[in-house]
Specification:
The complex is a heterodimer of chains A (about 300) and B (about 325). In chain A, a hairpin with a 2-residue loop joins strand 9 (about 190-195) and strand 10. Chain A has nine helices and 14 strands. By secondary structure, chain A is α+β, with helices and mostly antiparallel strands. Chain A starts with a helix and ends with a helix. Chain A is about 30% helix and about 25% strand. In chain A, helix 5 (about 125-135) packs across helix 6 (about 140-150). In chain A, the strands form three sheets. In chain A, strands 5, 6, 7, 9, 10, 12, 13 and 14 form an eight-stranded mixed β-sheet that branches. In chain A, strands 1-2-4-3 form a four-stranded antiparallel β-sheet, with helices on one face. Chain A has a two-stranded antiparallel ribbon with strand order 8-11. With about 325 residues, chain B is of the alpha+beta class. Chain B has two domains: about 1-170, no CATH class; about 175-305, Cyclophilin (Beta Barrel), CATH 2.40.100.10. Chain B contains four helices and 21 strands. In chain B, the strands form four sheets. A seven-stranded antiparallel β-sheet of chain B has the order 7-6-9-4-1-12-11, with no helix packed on it. In chain B, helix 1 (about 35-45) runs parallel beside helix 4 (about 300-325). The longest helix of chain B is centred in the C-terminal third of the chain and has 23 residues, at about 300-325. The relative contact order of chain B is 0.17. Classes of the chains: A alpha+beta (about 300), B alpha+beta (about 325). At the A-B interface, strand 1, strand 2, strand 3 and strand 4 of A face strand 16, strand 19, strand 20 and helix 4 of B.
Chain lengths: ~300, ~325
């Protein structure tokens, strides 16, 4: 775990009720796995006075009641957990593999992105064409293939309820990176699939947004009324540590899934998976292959 | 029963907030000025987590459908019952058919109206607070509208006689310039030393973008330490790898216009946070209006905790005063 030991952890107070811990300035799977491991340990400890434990991409945050647990004591506990963690190899992470259908180049996000060309780096092309080009792909199709061929780790939830930040599980040289819009859009359709920096997202609700737009997911990731099976326990579907595989679908399948969502019968296709960060980092391509096989064939 | 004759600018049902769901991207919502909120509940003898109405800038016109105790605390938006001025920070009794209205705001920005028993709306994820972005909690997930009818609950702890009031020493006052205490930290390493000083030395002007999600301030431009941006952080020097935002944290997108994130804010994103408003002064921030001046004052954790104790002591004194019937 050479990379992990090279990461510089920064402990900071956020006023009198928050502690922010930055594990690394740069995004990496190592940093994210480390955050998952620490925050899961912290949750297991169920400390009195801890209100929120929020893992994020390469950092995490804790909200606590300083009247119950003094700030220095809280911070010492967090530092202790990091110290006691020897490496990432002996941690087993249990999470869900999920098939997430996406209708790329759909008419709705296309209409939205065309409306805001004056706020984009490349007013004369679509977000897909522009992103494919700056990442060295010959066509939008080849770019979509790159997005759908390897899974993404749900590395953080937030911004608005349920929004998953997803980081592709591929070597650094294969990571897609795109800028955000020059000026944010004032409109993004609900369930739009976008990309910004090194992260893909699905917008839970309609609203403003600055990520490049590539398509739309037929299935919700946030459901206020909790009528669907996957929302029985929470109004949001994604969980940090989930592994999403974006699957490219056409209009016909999009409409079929929409109907299932409407009549309440839709259920995400998913499988449980266990892995150690060590085995994933040692062979990302092998892990991706195994994960997809487990998701669709086991 | 209370009938909304006019809704005011933004009147929402709020309580202590929806705590414990930050991890899924759910901000706490809840009363912006917790001191005023708590005292309002005390004055009508409610449980301290009962729901109240938070009134912003321009007050509503409400008609009461039965006799009940009410109280009004917070900023100075002078209240009237049937056109006659009534005191704030006092237990009042209204009768069936009485109308509550307000004059223009004189000081502060938000008033809390507590009614005996609290406002009856369903608990959503442990709270009655309104979160309008996704339309949950409060009254149908939105601000009150003309014609709405709201009901009272039964969260009474101990009845309080009309006329109980809070000593002037325990009532905050609000000018047009505000000192807001912050703990500098989080990603403040991204600011140049000079800009850290500028941040604390500048008298900032609150822009029209000042609401429950956050307050944006105009003033000086801040500079970030030059660096090659880390992978995943985005191209602007004010960008960091997306992270969690504490409530009260201050970010400065592109180095212009610091934003203080408040109770309905986004829970995370890709801008460097440089300081956090201490929990006590979030109450004060709630009473700041557009075009007023704000200065951020750096304090230590020990000072932040002392401020917190002070508020608790004051609330204890308010409770004693009401208890003893003075």
């Amino acid at each position: 775990m050479k990379e992990v030991t090279q990461m510089q952890t920064r402990y900071e107070y956020g006023g009198d009720e928050f502690i922010f811990v930055q594990l690394s300035e740069a995004m990496s799977l190592e940093a994210n796995f480390k955050g998952i491991a620490i925050t899961r340990k912290l949750k297991e400890a169920s400390l009195e006075g801890v209100h929120d434990i929020c893992p994020s991409n390469a950092s995490y945050m804790v909200r606590f009641d300083p009247d119950v647990i003094p700030p220095e004591e809280m911070m010492a506990r967090l530092q202790q957990i990091e110290l006691e963690m020897e490496g990432l190899d002996d941690i087993t992470i249990t999470s869900r593999l999920v098939d997430v259908p996406v209708y790329f180049n759909d008419p709705w996000t296309h209409e939205a992105l065309m409306r805001f060309r004056d706020r984009h780096q490349a007013p004369d092309s679509t977000d897909l064409e522009y992103s494919a080009k700056i990442n060295g792909y010959d066509s939008s199709e080849a770019f979509i293939e790159a997005i759908t061929s390897a899974p993404f780790l749900v590395s953080m939830i937030g911004f608005v309820p349920g929004l998953p930040w997803c980081f592709q599980m591929v070597p650094r040289e294969k990571q897609i990176e795109v800028p955000k819009y020059v000026r944010p859009r004032t409109f993004t359709p609900e369930r739009a699939f976008g990309f910004g920096g090194a992260f893909s997202v699905i917008y839970p609700v309609q609203g403003a947004g600055g990520y490049q737009l590539y398509g739309i997911a037929p299935a919700p990731i946030y459901q206020k009324d909790q009528t669907l099976f996957d929302f029985q326990e929470s109004i949001v579907f994604p969980k940090q540590g989930d592994i999403f595989r974006y699957r490219s679908i056409g209009e016909e399948e999009y409409q079929a899934i929409r109907e299932q969502v409407e009549d309440g019968s839709f259920v995400y296709h998913k499988k449980e998976i266990q892995f150690t960060p060590g085995e994933v980092l040692a062979d990302l391509e092998g892990f991706a292959e195994r994960a997809l096989r487990r998701l669709y064939h086991d | 029963m209370i009938k909304v004759l006019k809704p005011g600018l933004q009147t929402t049902v709020q309580d202590r907030g929806r705590i414990g769901y930050y991890e899924i991207g759910m901000p706490p919502s809840g009363a912006m000025d917790k001191y005023a909120y708590t005292v309002a509940n005390m004055l009508v003898g409610n449980a301290l987590d009962a729901a109240v109405l938070e009134i912003t800038y321009l007050g509503p016109v409400l008609e009461f459908g039965k006799r009940m105790k009410i109280s009004l605390t917070g900023g100075e938006i002078p209240p009237k019952i049937n056109g006659q001025p009534v005191p704030m920070w006092t237990t009042l009794e209204v009768r069936e058919g009485d109308q509550l209205s307000f004059d223009f705001v004189k000081g502060g920005a938000r008033v809390y109206l507590a009614v005996e028993g609290g406002i009856a709306v369903p608990l959503v994820m442990g709270s009655r607070s309104t979160y309008t972005l996704i339309g949950i909690g409060g009254f149908e997930g939105r601000a009150l509208a003309e014609g709405d009818v709201i009901h009272t609950a039964d969260m009474i702890r101990k009845p309080v006689a009309a006329g109980a009031s809070v000593d002037a020493s325990l009532i905050p006052t609000y000018g047009k310039t505000h000192e807001i205490r912050v703990v500098v930290g989080l990603c403040s390493y991204r600011l140049t030393e000079e800009s850290k000083e500028t941040f604390l030395a500048t008298e900032w002007t609150v822009t029209p973008e000042a609401n429950r999600t956050g307050y944006r301030h105009r003033g000086e431009r801040l500079q970030f330490v030059e660096r090659e941006q880390p992978f995943g952080a985005g191209s602007n020097p004010s960008n960091v790898t997306d992270l969690g935002y504490p409530i009260g944290s201050i970010q400065v997108p592109d180095g212009v216009e610091p934003i203080v994130l408040l109770h309905d804010a986004v829970t995370g994103g890709g801008y460097a946070t440089i300081a956090t408003v201490i929990s006590t002064d979030l109450d004060r921030m709630a009473q700041v209006k557009t075009n007023e001046k704000v200065r951020f004052v750096s304090v230590t954790m020990a000072e932040a905790l002392d401020a917190r104790k002070d508020v608790q002591t004051k609330l204890g004194r308010v409770a004693e005063m009401i208890e003893s019937g003075s």
